[in-house]
Amino acid sequence: MDNAHETSTDIAQSKDENSPSETKLPRVDATLHSVPLILLTVLAVVFILDWAQPFFIPLVLGIIISYALSPLVNQLHKWHIPRALGAAFLLLAIMGGSVTLVYSLQDETAGMIDTLPEAAQKFRHILNKEWGVSKGAIENVQKAADQIEHVANETAASASPPPPRGVTRVQVESPRFNIRDYLWNGTIGALSFVSLAVLVLFLAYFLMVSGDAFRRKLVKLSGPTLSRRRVTVQMLNEISAQIQRYLGVQLFTSAIVGVTSWLAFVWIGLEHAAVWGVAAAILNLVPYLGAIVIAGGTTLVAFLQFGTAGMALTVAAISLVIHGLEGNLLTPWLIGRASRMNGVVVFVGVLFWGWLWGAWGLVLGMPILMAIKSVCDRVEEFKSIGEFMGD
Q1: For a tag on the chain, would you pick the N or C end, based on fewer CB atoms within 10 A?
Q2: pLDDT band at 48 (very low <50, low <70, confident <90, very high)
Q3: Which of 64, 14, 97, 110 is nearest to 250 (CA)?
Q4: pTM for this one?
């Protein structure tokens, strides 16, 4: 009887061990289930940022300008100057300086534009001289292209079925160039730029006048606990300090790049050196791509002016050396190691924002990346992303 009981017990244990309900399955990480949700959230954010460009671009520009000028407004307020007057004075001073700079370079810019037809002819002459491209060869290529197009049109006309009886064949001609439409589109573009500038200036003005009011409201919205409010205050202070330091360093280094480029171009004899110096200072605000654009533009102008590849390469080398010393030595030393970011992340981030917002994205990409890094460094869940973005 005991043996039968033990045998039944062993059979039951063996069934329990082999039962599929008791089989241990491998555990799946819960984070894998959230990957599709994260991807959908990222795609939704990108879509909203692209769709609402007219709203986000002035907003970001206004916030960045207010961050840059807030220390000066605070200093004027300490000197018993109302914040409204101090902010208005600074914005008017910036607008007046910009208009004065554009007006002082108006004649030189107009002269450079007037030389474009002559530069095109000179470029064709240099190509014929340097690479032996004769005028006859170019004309033969053009005639061959015209003949191919003529044959293709005849083949398409013969291959198409004849129209039914009573139906007239219609040929659609492309409209001619209308100067009034061109001027109208240019006027619309200028008005849109002016309206954008007005919106940005008003937003920056109201943010500077309000002072720390919005910061205190954001701290209250962060939560009732003291720890959350402390993290929010640290995050906002970090964002403000990072952006102010970055903008100050960028303005200082851009001025140095502009003046140095202007002096170097004057020394080498490049025409319209002042215009290229201002362009170098402005495009220095765009990481990496600005230096490439200036180097390419000055190389082409030097090639058209001097007519030799050696002088063109010399001008390109001067431009690249100036930007290289600024980007690899001066700017990292002024910003400090705590504010540095990974070069690959910066390049990819600037390309992303340029793809998303165009030229404005190239200018605003770096401040946005610095703000994202500051948030990631302070939030526990995103610290790994902040470490990845750091240098």
Answers
A1: N
A2: very high
A3: 64
A4: 0.69
